[in-house]
Automatic annotation (TrEMBL):
Residues 650-671 are annotated as: Disordered. It comes from Probosciger aterrimus. GO terms for biological process: negative regulation of fatty acid biosynthetic process. Coiled coil: none annotated. The keyword NADP does not apply. SUPFAM superfamilies: TPR-like (SSF48452), WD40 repeat-like (SSF50978). This is WDTC1 protein. PROSITE patterns: WD_REPEATS_2, WD_REPEATS_REGION. PANTHER family: WD AND TETRATRICOPEPTIDE REPEATS PROTEIN 1, WD REPEAT DOMAIN-CONTAINING FAMILY. One of its GO terms (cellular component) is cytoplasm. Pfam families: WD40.
Length: 671
């Protein structure tokens, strides 16, 4: 983090009261605090897994819900149990929420008995019971703008809305996912934008995350009721459940193509948690079976698919991020995100030399790469990229490290880096070649062949290198293999978006929405999310400086948001950490999981003895989690039972085939 003059800021805060909020936000969660984060206390009182946690707005109360069907309200600052009550549920509680503007008196719970209950804490009574869902209720969402209204997501595929001002004991269906995705779809999580309560994000079965405009949905239904022809239907017309523009989908660009492979390996993709950043401009998703993704809701980008470099012209002006003269554009056109480099001759801006401190970081990254420390190299390159975002060489080098590491999603991140490098330097030789290799690894075989042909035309001196020949052989073998899929990936939409089962038929409206999906901005790796479907990921800090997530290995992981670098891993549970809820205004974190306790974490004094819960080998923990995610489900079950599994390789987790070791001049070393 950037250096700050804390003495000056303290004086400014004392003199000018308006500076207090800025001071709090800047120093709320800082890097020194993160590195001193440790266990403060364990709150004991539940007799089952603690599945949900919720702070009140002031941060002086913490509510928890458990498999024991009880909810407990704690005074976390004094480590005291204030209230414990049986909720009336007959199965595990999965969600607990304070109703806004109720003076922390009203608490809402959702559970595996398909029920939603509303409780008055002052009298310890359940005052409303809703039984409209037909499957487990996984999440409750509230909104400050609508203090009497809340929403629920359940595994019957429905998002329901409740208004406590209504006399009716029933709720209304706001969104029915089964109309779009078939009867097997399950809604797992939802959240309301804290800055604009009209927007609701929903996570469900599959890799797509949905963002809805509640206001548009209500207006559409009102207009349908008021329309004179509302009750008259013909065989030709069709009433849309949602109006055009009321929904926007988000997806990690590589996941739809990988979905059939995941299904074949019984690996389930499902969004287990969604949350907005404090300013409402970003959406964070913990994707079960995969990684944690951050989507930018302001500067959106289409997935990097259906991309092909146009035919290039001459070679040799600028290669591998190094500067020459008379630069020529290669005219790359990214069909789906609308980015275009003009064809023909164009000015290539000279590559600015890195400042000495960044040059040192780059050299450290190159040394880590040479030692096959792929994650360390990636983190160092990412640190440099944050400071020099227009340096093509850094993107090209990071792409090489991603391709060597081969964790889930690494080849797609490498592809994105290659494209960025080429956009900054259209004649970056290694980025062009790596782009072809990434396309091949991502199963875009025909595109990879065309990209490789383009590379050979642009850089004829490399056309017969060992790396080029090896990739050419791989591509042609894949193209003509009888075991290759009968349908061509180049067709795009139908392959990416089609359902695979009989009951999960996808509607035409759903197909259109999926085809219009936006891609992620950042990806966070290291944790494992395959065993439970309530695992959370959250922003940490008023300015969302950090990302935190639970994991199947009993740890929780903390990343820097902007660099995506892993900075801290702490052992938070004997089995699995599911819940992580940061305090609204302090560097204070509440976690829970399979253990029947709530754990509280804050920065420990510098004089305190060594924190025994710190996972020192973060790289080893991350690699083990990648292997766990790619293991056979039976092996994972045995791992959870304590058996040692052999035969899992230590490197290259992610299921990709090894690249040819003789990469020749093109790819063997970073620049």
């Amino acid at each position: 983090m950037a250096k700050a003059n804390i003495t000056r800021d303290i004086i400014h805060r004392q003199i000018k009261e308006r500076g207090a909020l800025g001071f709090e936000r800047h120093y709320h969660v800082t890097d020194p605090f993160i590195r001193r984060l440790g266990l403060e206390a364990e709150l004991q009182g539940h007799s089952g897994c603690v599945n949900c946690l919720e702070w009140n707005e002031k941060g002086d109360l913490l509510a928890s819900g458990s498999d024991d069907q009880h909810t407990i309200v704690w005074d976390p600052l004094h480590h005291k149990k204030l209230l414990s009550m049986h909720t009336g549920h007959t199965a595990n509680i999965f969600s607990v929420k304070f109703l806004p503007h109720s003076g922390d008196r009203i608490l809402i719970t959702g559970a595996a008995d398909s029920k939603v209950h509303v409780h008055d804490l002052t009298v310890k009574e359940t005052i409303h019971m809703f039984g409209d869902h037909t499957n487990r209720v996984k999440r409750i969402a509230t909104a400050p703008m609508w203090p009497n209204t809340f929403w629920s997501a359940a595994e019957d595929g429905l998002i329901r809305q409740y208004d406590l001002r209504e006399n009716s004991k029933r709720s209304e269906v706001l969104i029915d996912l089964t109309e779009y995705c078939g009867q097997l779809v399950e809604a797992k999580c939802l959240t309301v934008n804290p800055q604009d309560n009209n927007y609701l994000a929903v996570g469900a079965s599959g890799p797509f995350v949905r963002l809805y405009d509640i206001r548009m949905i209500h207006n559409h239904r009102k207009s349908m009721k008021q329309s004179p022809s509302a009750g008259v239907h013909t065989f030709c017309d069709r009433q849309k459940p949602l109006p055009d523009g009321a929904a926007q989908y988000y997806v990690a660009g590589h996941l739809p193509v990988k979905l059939p492979d995941y299904n074949n390996r019984l690996r389930v993709l499902v969004a287990t948690y969604v949350t907005f950043s404090p300013d409402g401009t970003e959406l964070l998703v913990n994707m079960g079976g995969e990684q944690v993704y951050l989507f930018d809701l302001t500067y959106k980008q289409r997935p990097y698919t259906f991309l092909l470099p146009k035919k290039c012209h001459t070679s040799g002006e600028v290669q591998n991020g190094k500067t020459s003269t008379n630069g020529v554009s290669n005219g790359i056109h990214l069909h789906s995100n609308g980015f275009r480099l003009a064809e023909g001759r164009a000015h290539v801006s000279p590559q600015v030399e890195l400042p000495p401190y960044l040059e040192r970081i780059k050299q450290q990254a190159n040394e880590a790469f040479a030692c096959q420390l792929w994650t360390q190299a990636i983190q160092l390159y990412s640190k440099a990229v944050q400071k020099a975002p227009n340096n093509a060489m850094l993107y090209g080098n990071r792409a090489a490290a991603y391709m060597k590491r081969k964790w889930d999603g690494d080849h797609y991140d490498a592809l994105r880096d290659c494209l960025k490098a080429i956009s900054l330097n259209p004649c970056h030789l290694k980025a062009h070649f790596r782009l072809a290799r990434c396309l091949f690894e991502l199963k875009y075989v025909a595109e990879a062949l065309e990209c490789l042909d383009d590379f050979k035309g642009k850089f004829p001196e490399q056309a017969h290198s060992s790396a080029c020949d090896a990739l050419d052989r791989d591509i042609n073998a894949a193209l003509f293999s009888k075991s290759d899929n009968a349908e061509d990936k180049k067709g795009g939409g139908p392959i990416r978006l089609r359902a695979t089962g009989r009951k999960d038929s996808i509607s035409e409206d759903e197909m259109v929405l999926r085809e219009r999906s936006y891609d992620y901005k950042f990806r966070y790796c290291g944790h494992c999310n395959t065993t439970t479907d309530i695992k959370e990921a959250n922003f940490f800090g008023s300015n969302a400086q950090y990302i935190v997530s639970g994991s199947d290995d009993g740890s929780f992981f903390i990343w820097e948001k902007e660099t995506t670098n892993l900075v801290r891993v702490l052992q938070g549970d004997e089995s699995i950490v599911n819940c992580l809820q940061p305090h609204p205004s302090y560097c204070f974190l509440a976690t829970s999981g399979i253990d029947p306790v709530v754990r509280l974490w804050n920065p420990r004094p510098e004089s305190e003895t060594l924190n025994g819960r710190v996972v020192v080998d973060m790289e080893g923990a991350s690699q083990a989690n990648q292997r766990r995610m790619n293991a056979d489900p039976l092996e994972v079950m045995l791992l959870n039972m304590g058996y040692r599994i052999t035969g899992l390789t230590s490197g290259g987790a992610g299921g990709s085939d090894d690249e040819d070791s003789s990469e020749g001049q093109v790819q063997c070393r970073p620049s």
